[in-house]
Amino acid sequence: MRPLFIAGNWKMNPTTEADAVSLAEAVKEGVGQDHAVRVAVCPPSVFLHRLDTVLSNSPIGLGGQNMHPEPSGAYTGELSAGMLVDVGCTHVILGHSERRHGLGETDAFVNKKLLAALKAGLIPIVCIGETLEEREQGQTEAVVGDQLDGSLAGLDGDQMAGVVLAYEPVWAIGTGRTATPEQAQQVHAFIRSRLSERFSEAIASRVVIQYGGSVKPENARDLLARPDIDGALVGGASLKAADFLGIVEAARAVTAERR
C-alpha cells in the first residue's frame, strides 16, 4: 500500500520568521510522532534553516519550493540542490504551474532540475497539470502526457520510484475550484497508466501521485479515498495549522480504512 503524503506549499507566506516558526510548531505538535501518513512543509527559502531546527525530532519533512539544476555558479537569486540539503531539506517542489506558466519554465528545464535533485538525494515533487482552456478543449491527457514525458526524460525505473508526482490542474489552484474526486481520479489513473507503459506496472504501482488544487479539510477525505490519489500538495490551507492538520487527519482516516 502506498503511504499517503500530505505536503504544504506555503508559497510566499508568511511574511515573518516568527509567524513561520509559530505555524511550523503548531503543525509539529498536531502531527506528533505518527508515521502513518507522510507529511512535509515547504516554506520560503529564507525560513528553511530556522524551521529545520523547529522540526527536529519530528517525522515532518522539510522542502524547498524550487531549485536551480546547476550545483553552483553565476545564477543570481538561485539555490542549488546542495544548498537545500545543507539547510536540512528532504524534499523539493519542481515545475509548479506558477513557475511553468508565470516564469516560463519548460519541461526540459524541469527535467534538469529533477535529475539534479535526485543526484543530491532530495525527494522531488514534480508538478503537472492542464489549464482551464486545455481541459475545455479536451486536451488534458495530451498535455499531462507531454509534461510527464518531458519532465521525466532520462529516468530509469529505480529513479522514478523515488519521485513524487503532483497533479495540479491549473484552473483549480488558488481559485476555490476543485476537480471533483472523479475528475481527479481519472487523471491520476491516466498518469499511472502512462508510467506503467514507460517503466513497468511494478514501478507505476510504487509512485506516489498527489492531488493539488484548493484542497481543504472539507473535501480531502473524498479525494484521498480514490485508489490512485496518494496525497495532497496543499496551498492556501497549509497556512492555517488547523486546516492543514484537518487534511492530515483525513489522510489518517483513509489510511486506517485501507488496512
From TrEMBL:
<dbReference type="GO" id="GO:0006094">
    <property type="term" value="P:gluconeogenesis"/>
</dbReference>
<feature type="binding site">
    <location>
        <begin position="235"/>
        <end position="236"/>
    </location>
    <ligand>
        <name>substrate</name>
    </ligand>
</feature>
<feature type="active site" description="Proton acceptor">
    <location>
        <position position="168"/>
    </location>
</feature>
<dbReference type="InterPro" id="IPR020861">
    <property type="entry name" value="Triosephosphate_isomerase_AS"/>
</dbReference>
<dbReference type="GO" id="GO:0004807">
    <property type="term" value="F:triose-phosphate isomerase activity"/>
</dbReference>
<feature type="binding site">
    <location>
        <begin position="9"/>
        <end position="11"/>
    </location>
    <ligand>
        <name>substrate</name>
    </ligand>
</feature>
<dbReference type="InterPro" id="IPR013785">
    <property type="entry name" value="Aldolase_TIM"/>
</dbReference>
<keyword id="KW-0312">Gluconeogenesis</keyword>
<dbReference type="InterPro" id="IPR035990">
    <property type="entry name" value="TIM_sf"/>
</dbReference>
<feature type="binding site">
    <location>
        <position position="214"/>
    </location>
    <ligand>
        <name>substrate</name>
    </ligand>
</feature>
<comment type="subunit">
    <text>Homodimer.</text>
</comment>
<dbReference type="GO" id="GO:0006096">
    <property type="term" value="P:glycolytic process"/>
</dbReference>
<dbReference type="Pfam" id="PF00121">
    <property type="entry name" value="TIM"/>
</dbReference>
<comment type="pathway">
    <text>Carbohydrate degradation; glycolysis; D-glyceraldehyde 3-phosphate from glycerone phosphate: step 1/1.</text>
</comment>
<comment type="function">
    <text>Involved in the gluconeogenesis. Catalyzes stereospecifically the conversion of dihydroxyacetone phosphate (DHAP) to D-glyceraldehyde-3-phosphate (G3P).</text>
</comment>
<feature type="binding site">
    <location>
        <position position="174"/>
    </location>
    <ligand>
        <name>substrate</name>
    </ligand>
</feature>
<protein>
    <recommendedName>
        <fullName>Triosephosphate isomerase</fullName>
        <ecNumber>5.3.1.1</ecNumber>
    </recommendedName>
</protein>
<dbReference type="GO" id="GO:0046166">
    <property type="term" value="P:glyceraldehyde-3-phosphate biosynthetic process"/>
</dbReference>
<comment type="pathway">
    <text>Carbohydrate biosynthesis; gluconeogenesis.</text>
</comment>
<dbReference type="InterPro" id="IPR000652">
    <property type="entry name" value="Triosephosphate_isomerase"/>
</dbReference>
<keyword id="KW-0413">Isomerase</keyword>
<dbReference type="InterPro" id="IPR022896">
    <property type="entry name" value="TrioseP_Isoase_bac/euk"/>
</dbReference>
<comment type="similarity">
    <text>Belongs to the triosephosphate isomerase family.</text>
</comment>
<feature type="active site" description="Electrophile">
    <location>
        <position position="96"/>
    </location>
</feature>
<keyword id="KW-0963">Cytoplasm</keyword>
<dbReference type="GO" id="GO:0019563">
    <property type="term" value="P:glycerol catabolic process"/>
</dbReference>
<dbReference type="GO" id="GO:0005829">
    <property type="term" value="C:cytosol"/>
</dbReference>
<keyword id="KW-0324">Glycolysis</keyword>
